[in-house]
Structure formats: structure tokens, C-alpha cells
Amino acid sequence: MFSIQAFLDSFGPLLWAARYTLLVSGLGIALGLVLGALVCAAALSRWRAARFVAALWVSFLRGVPLLVQLLLMYYLLPVIGINVPAIVAAVVTVGICASAYISEIWRGAIGALPPGQSEAAVAVGMNNRDLWTRIILPQAVVMSLPALVNELILLVKASSLVSLVGIMEVTRASQAQAATTFRPLEVYIAAACIYLLINLCLAGLGRYLEHRMAV
Amino acid sequence: MDWDVLRQYAPILLRGFGITILAWAFGTVFGMALGLVISLAQRYGARPVRWVLQAYIEVVRGTPFLVQLFVLYYGGPLVGLRLDALPAGLVGLTIYGSPYFAEIFRSGFDAVPPGQAEAARAIGMAEPAIVRRILLPLGLVSALPALVNFSIILTKETVILSVITVPELMYQVQRMSTETFRYLEANLVLALFFWGLVELISRGGRRLETRITRHLLERPGHG
Lengths: 215, 223
Hints:
Chain A is 83% helix and 0% strand. Chain A is mainly alpha-helical.
């Protein structure tokens, strides 16, 4: 039946592969934050064309399954003459996908600020740049932190999909391990434990931030 | 894109689409039912029951759907749970969705003002009647947008079933592209198709929401 030995033995290779899980989700959220800021800026811009592009970006990336996006990128890049390692393509795809969700998180946070804040800033004669860098953005970024941690948890889980384009992260390593040991149950449960461990840590971080923010 | 190829593969693509819709509907309906049971058991159950359910919610929400499917489909037979790909996929989707639905129902129930249940108790309503006539109708209305939202997320999760060889749309598209070597076109069409589907469902969902919450807006002297 369930072999504790096989279960424990799988942790070695799986934990070693977890560095790719962390890499893909970590770089993915970093890229997502940068792109997400741009998309959010476009969505709030006064130019209609920019708003339209942002809306299209968000709608497409939230409407298409990440697995399809990954395969699309995987097959598209060589056709347009870009040859990069699979890991780069994977991180970029995860980051692009995350940017759509993150821009919505930030748009929501900016929208949730009491209008009195910016009215007061304008009333005391602040210019537009100070209004954004001193009043709106600091508050909106702090407000969005719990949602961003949540997004990071989603990315850790989503990173399991990059196993399908050949990245040796936890899921792919567990497939390899299961294929050599013929103990899929033990190996996949061990993989689940690793994801759970990472995500419980992140959820703890999220709760801490939420607690800090509740003034 | 070579349209002849699409015409040639139309029957299997349609069959795949049928299975995608089946998986989505099954996962949504049964995931929601299981989620409702979990959220009610968490509200009224004994403490050990609540602990077990909380652990279940944490574990399912903390692990990737792909890994859950692997445990179920490849690990299941070792403990005597032998499921074919499609049933394993349907069960997997139900399990995956249930804790999210449970949390949505929980917050929906929490959003019902406590005065409502207290008033019902004060006029002598029994607890099951309070659940059926106060908590459920009011909680469901406030949970509706989140329920629609999560069922849209489930649409996209169905493609992961292709990995355990459930013959849904993604699986058939992969099969078509390996047979015709048109990987890019096939995946592009698939992406556009899902985009359209998700837009359609979310528009339908929004209309449903405005219809069901209409009474909240129309009553004069409210809000």
C-alpha cells in the first residue's frame, strides 16, 4: 500500500526541483508587477486608444487558459524568429498572464481610495505628479498587498503547468520520479505537500500583511 | 490556417467541445453542491468536523489542480480507486472547485445581516427553516457574482484535463496539431475560441446578476 519510504525519498529530488517552481512564480510576479503597472496606467489613461488596448489585453489574457497561452507562446516564438530557452518563454508567458490580473488589482485599489484624498491634495495645490507619487500610489500599493500575495499563491500553482513545456519544476520532477519508482501515489502526494508548504507560508504572509493593514 | 484541415477534424473537435462543456457543467454543478454542503457543515457542524473541513479547504486550495489530477488518476489505482480518464477528470474538477465554492457561500452567508436570522428566531422559526428561507435566499444573492466568476475560472481549468487524456477540446486540438503539424494555428484558434467562450459566459453571468439583484435596486426608499 502506501509506502512511507517512497514518500520520504521523493522529497529530495522534488525539493531540488522546487527552485524552478519558485523561479517561475517569483520572476513571473515580478514581470507581472511591471507590465501590470503599465497596463493599469493605460487603462486609466485619458486616451481612448490606450484604454482600448488595455481592455483587450486584460480580456484576452483572462479569457484564455494559461495552458493554451503557454503552448501558443511555445509555438509562436520560433515562427517569429525568437529562439530562447523554454524557461524564458515560460516565465514571460506567466508574467504576461499575471500582468492582466495585477493591473485589475491595482485598478481596483486606486478606485477604492476615498475621492476625498485626491480632492484634498488638489485643494492644497498639489500638482499632478505629487498627487500620484505621494497620495494615490503609496496608499493604493499598500492596499493591494494582500491581493498581490494571493496572486502569487495562484502563480505558484499555475507554475505546475510549465511542466508541460518541459521545465523541470516540481510537477515535472514528480512525473519523472513516478516513472522511475512506479510509486505515483507517494510521489504526487509529496509534490502536493511541497506546494502546500510554499502556499501556507505565503498565505501566512498574506494574513500578516492584512493584519498590519487593518488600522 | 488551412480550413480544409478544420473541416476534416470538425467532428472530433465538436465532440471534444461537448466534453469540455460537460466537464465544465459537471464541475460547476457538483462542485457548487459539495461546496454548499461544506459551508453549511462548517457553519453548523461540531468542532472536529469544522477542523477536518478547514484542512480539506486548505489542502485543495494550496495545491495545483494538475497535481490533484495526478494523485487521483495515477495514484488512485494504488489504493483501489480505479477511474477512467473522464470520470477521474469530472471527480477531480468537483473536488478542485468545492473549497472555492464553499468559501464563496461562507462569505455570502456572512453577508446576511445577523438581524435577519435573529428576527426569524424571535418570531419562532425553527433553525432549518431559517437556513432554507432566510440564509439561503439572501446569501445566494450576495454570493452570485463570485459564483459566476468562479464558474468562469472552471471553464479554463477544463483544458488541464487534457493532460490525463480526457478527450476534451484541448486534447483533440493537440491530437489534430500533431497529426497535421499545424501547432501554431491550432493553438491560436483554440485561444480565440476560449476567449470568445469566456467573454460570452461572463456577459451572460452579468445579465443574470442584474436580473436576480434587480429587486435590490428597484424598491423605493432602499439604498
